[in-house]
Specification:
507 residues, alpha/beta, six-stranded parallel sheet, 18 helices, 17 strands, 43% helix, binds 6-O-phosphono-beta-D-fructofuranose, Glyco_trans_20, Trehalose-6-phosphate synthase
Length: 507
């Protein structure tokens, strides 16, 4: 971790996330094309950043370069600030960190997506438990270094007393590292994933557990998407020596090495406040987007494909926690157990490749493709294709699919929130029935109006699909209205400004 730095910057509000609000791609003539970044976090924060007052130094967003095009863009500016390199990044100044490729791969792939993601989503099967040996230690050192690069950049950009909002499991060490460099800052961290129960979190090496927890506890405020994830975090934190938890507050007396915690007052500890902020969607903005011509074009294509049949839809990154394979098995079970639906329905599966640098994710994509083909082999008729699989990410098509769905399947084995459930509720033009896993964060708010399933129970999921298809129109309408109201309860802009206000008011 770099030594405390005397130099301070001018930004009053800073955001840090692995994936930033913009991404670059190579144009046909070798020029750099600037695009909106991908992923749920960007949809969440992009609007809030765009709303920041027109003072370029007020909001600085620090992120990692995710490819060669990003790296070349960053290299145009001596300090990596894209606005200074002549790119229009809206009202947020974006600082893109050119991280050494090996460090990035180890931190993002090996630690964040293979270990931390697996732990928080309980994805390790008994036969494939992780092995934490010498190689993991190198990966872990890279994760520490990658986090330190973010902390250093934030420390350079932040004005005295500025508010820093750090996002997600890639950057769990940043709050502690940054506090050591800049104790004057107000620091928040938000977890967009679930949090594992203590017995499962204990899979991690003891020192790694302590570093992660103390890294986060370097913040003034910690945010989670649901009470369940906040509770699980608290139960992990209270197992640490020198840490006491009470009433959504964590009192930190000692650090991982037993030394007194940074910033501890004589009266007994530094207080870290825990907040639950269930991110929603901007219903008006989504509906405006759905009204645009490209979405209408996609909707016409999908309607032609369905040929008047009722659409069962899912939209996911192809990723193990999303439980796509069991979702497809449930559809197969439906067609086997309820032959009346053969020829009457079509399952539109949008499953977009994700994190293909890791074998687990590649194998999962193959399993999805195989099962989709098997289902079509078993049931297809001359004039009926039971399942249509789309693997090329296409945002207008996803919006069109959600608006045409009669049934929306969201069956993750575990999910921080699952914004697709909320997007689907906001966009539905056919009063879509939501078949929702009780393990998704969205269940806490939407469980009452959805058909709730145990994501491991394929037969129960098939039965829920059947119930959705036979549900009377009036009941569909009532449930859909309730789901749409819930989806828009905490749109990203308010979600962000609420947290910023709470952080700015922190003692
Ligand atoms: O669920 C947490 C989250 O950070 C989302 O915000 C985001 O969509 C995803 O995980 C990250 O995916 P990726 O590895 O593609 O950046």
């Amino acid at each position: 971790v770099p030594a405390p730095s005397a130099a301070t910057g001018t930004a009053r509000v800073l955001v840090a996330s692995n994936r930033g609000p913009v991404a670059f791609a190579d144009g046909p003539d070798g020029e750099l094309l600037l695009r909106r970044g991908a992923g749920g976090l960007v949809s969440g924060l992009g609007q809030a950043a765009a709303d920041a007052p027109p003072d370029a130094d007020r909001l600085v967003w620090v992120c990692a370069a995710l490819g060669d095009a990003d790296r070349r863009a960053a290299s145009r500016a001596p300090d990596g600030r894209l606005d200074r390199a002549g790119f229009d990044t809206g009202r947020a100044a974006v600082r893109i960190l050119d991280i050494d490729q090996e460090i990035f791969d180890r931190a993002y792939n090996a630690v964040a997506n293979r270990v931390l993601w697996f732990v928080q989503h309980l994805l390790y099967a008994p036969a494939s438990q992780p092995v934490f040996g010498a190689r993991f230690r190198q990966d872990w050192a890279a994760y520490q270094a990658y986090n330190a690069m973010f902390a250093e950049a934030l420390a350079q950009e932040a004005a005295p007393g500025a508010c820093v909002l750090v996002q997600d499991y890639h950057l769990m060490l940043v709050p502690g590292q940054l506090r050591r460099m800049r104790p004057d800052l107000r620091i928040a961290h938000f977890s967009h994933t679930p949090w594992a129960p203590p017995d499962y979190f204990r899979i991690l090496p003891d020192d790694v557990q302590a570093q992660l927890l103390h890294g986060l506890l370097g913040a003034d405020r910690l945010g989670f998407l649901t009470d369940a994830w906040a509770d699980a975090f608290e139960r992990c934190a209270e197992a640490l020596p020198g840490v006491a938890v009470h009433d959504r507050q964590v009192r930190v007396l000692a650090q991982a090495d037993g030394a007194q915690a940074d910033g501890v007052e004589a009266d007994g500890g530094r207080l870290v406040r825990i907040g639950v902020h269930p991110l929603g969607v901007d219903v008006g903005e989504l509906r405006d987007r759905a009204a645009q011509a490209d979405v209408a074009g996609r909707a016409a294509e999908l309607a032609a494909l369905a040929g008047g049949r009722r659409l069962i839809v899912r939209v996911d990154r192809t990723e193990l926690s999303k439980n796509i394979v069991r979702g497809l098995l449930a559809y197969r079970e439906l067609l086997r157990a309820q032959p009346r639906w053969r020829g009457q329905v079509m399952h539109l599966v949008c499953a977009y490749p994700s994190r293909h640098n890791l074998p687990e994710y590649r194998e999962y994509t193959q399993a999805v493709r195989r099962l989709a083909a098997e289902i079509n082999d078993e049931f297809a008729e001359d004039d009926w294709c039971p399942l249509h699989l789309e693997v090329t990410d296409d945002y207008p098509r996803s919006i069109a699919a959600l608006s045409l769905a009669e049934v929306l399947v969201v069956n993750p084995v575990r999910d921080g929130m699952n914004l697709v459930a909320k997007e689907g509720a906001a966009l539905s033009r056919r009063d879509a029935v939501l078949v929702l896993s009780r393990e998704a964060g969205a269940y806490a708010e939407m469980g009452g109006a959805a058909l709730v399933v145990n994501p491991f129970d394929v037969q129960a999921t098939a039965a829920a699909l059947h119930t959705a298809l036979i549900m009377p129109a009036a009941e569909r309408r009532r449930r859909a209205a309730e789901l749409a109201a819930v989806a828009g309860r905490l749109p990203p802009r308010i979600w962000f400004t609420d947290q910023l206000a709470a952080l700015a008011a922190a003692p």
